[in-house]
Amino acid sequence: MTIPLPERAGRRCHNLINPLHSTHYFSPDLERELTAVGIEDRRAAYFAVRAAAMGPVGAGVVTATFYNFRPETVARHVPAVWETAPAPVVLAARTRAVDTTLRRLLGEEAVASEEMAEAAELALRAAQACTPQARPLYAAHAALPVPDAPHLAFWHAATLLREHRGDGHLAVLLDAGLGPLEALVTHTATGKGMAPKWALATRGWSREDWDAASGRLRERGLLDADGGLTAQGTALRKEIEVETDRLDRAPYEHLGAAGVERLTGLAGDFLARAFAAGAFPPDMIGKG
């Protein structure tokens, strides 16, 4: 008899796996590896490492699949970045950076542990139920080979689960009528998204852009005068997460309740180690 998943079990698992995937974006190891292949600008580096699985795509594809970046910012770096370092070179540099980052943050004992091998097996099993239709970032990464080393296999599976959920999430944002910047502003207003200074610094938008989006959201009754979510805005963000859960249920249902619980626990332990090792800037999340 199949035991149904507890409510939001898949989301809780994702919320621990996703940051583990993201550690390399903030890692000096990634900066070093990409500088070695000629990519020195941090924005160009992010666009390159996340888009490389799709091949040497243009600015339009990156803008569409990444969603919340200012299009002009993307166009300043893509497709020019592929002339500096072809996509296969970027993918190899990314793998080296992930390897070094995880070893540094988690420690050699954790990287070589039975728990890491188990986490990789569980995450890969969950990813077997992901589907490529209308999920371009997931589909591109799913076509890459699974690394042999367990910690890299776990990271690869975490990437598949992250991008699968993310691709579905963008469809939900479109249906909710939240454009790229409106999505950023409302997510920040929940207290769980990037702080405005981080969103502006990394996504290419100006303060004027941010204020204009906030005004549009106030007109819709989603944001109050102080920049917080209204009851209507809170309800909309909740609906967005619930619908994203629905579109992302397949991998966690495939893994089963016991497997999801175990993977959540393992990922939580690894993430705690990463946080303790300073994996992320301390002021990155919040409304400030």
List the helices and strands and how they pair.
Blueprint lengths: L8 H14 L5 H9 L5 H10 L7 H8 L4 H5 L5 H4 L2 H20 L1 H4 L2 H14 L8 H7 L7 H26 L4 H10 L6 H8 L3 H13 L11 H17 L1 H7 L1 H20 L12
Helix pairs in contact: 1-11, 1-17, 2-7, 9-11, 9-16, 9-17, 10-11, 11-15, 12-14
Short structural description:
With 288 residues, this protein is an all-alpha fold.
Order of helices and strands: HHHHHHHHHHHHHHHHH
Rg, Cα atoms, Å:
19 Å
- Uncertain regions: pLDDT < 50 for 5+ in a row? none
Indicate the mean pLDDT.
Answer: 96
| Helix count from the secondary structure assignment | 17
Global structural class: mainly alpha
Main beta sheet: none
Count of DSSP strands: 0
Q: Shape, please?
A: globular
